[in-house]
Amino acid sequence: MADDNRTQQVSLGIGTLSLIALIVMIFSGGSGGIKREVQGLQSEVGDLRKAVEAQSTEIRQLRDRLTPTVQSEGEASK
Asked: What is the span of the domain harbouring residue 68?
């Protein structure tokens, strides 16, 4: 039981220190690096969205090209 109390106190201490470190980082200007990183990630996400849209368009075009061919072959076999 005594060991449980010590473990809980240590966990609380670690959580408190983590929270303090986070608060200090945010208010000391350390968040500038985080903001730049977030902006970079947002830019990459935008690039990925464009790439996905381009691939979707290409797949759609290929499907449209193949669809008349498949239908024609189905009609020819009747």
From this structure: 2-76
